[in-house]
Amino acid sequence: HNRQPLIVQVLNGCGKEGAAADIAGHLKNVTIISVENADQFDYEESVIIVWRKGKNKELKSFYRTVGITQDHISFKSDDLYPADVSLIVGHDHPTLKNRLTTPTQK
């Protein structure tokens, strides 16, 4: 039974050019379908929107990797959405990048 990787859309929610692409480049073991601008550029902190809940194991692993806490995760449930999750990169993107580029302690 081959697990399907999480399908991720990375959105720039801070307006800094290249921020979303930069973060997307550091995400491992996921399929990135698009990198684009979010609806607005005033996200102070990065957030995750979960469109589909099926891949629980992959989701948990993604939360851990990105270091986003439960209060920054929202569930919107839309089976027709092209991604399993959207990662909206906020003004905290340097912190986010540090987490993604620093080896995690197991």
Largest sheet: 5 strands, mixed
Helix run count: 3
Mean pLDDT: 93
Strand order of the largest sheet: 2-1-5-3-4
The radius of gyration over CA amounts to: 13 Å
Walk me through the structure.
With 106 residues, the protein is of the alpha/beta class. The protein is 25% helix and 25% strand. It contains three helices and five strands. Strands 2-1-5-3-4 form a five-stranded mixed beta sheet. It is globular. The protein starts with 5 loop residues before the first strand and ends in a 5-residue tail after the last helix. The mean pLDDT is 93.
List the helices and strands and how they pair.
Elements: E1 6-12, H1 19-24, E2 30-37, E3 47-50, H2 56-66, E4 73-75, E5 85-89, H3 93-101
Brief account:
Strands 2-1-5-3-4 form a five-stranded mixed sheet.
Based on the model shown, name its key terms.
alpha/beta, globular, 5 strands, 106 residues, five-stranded mixed sheet, single chain
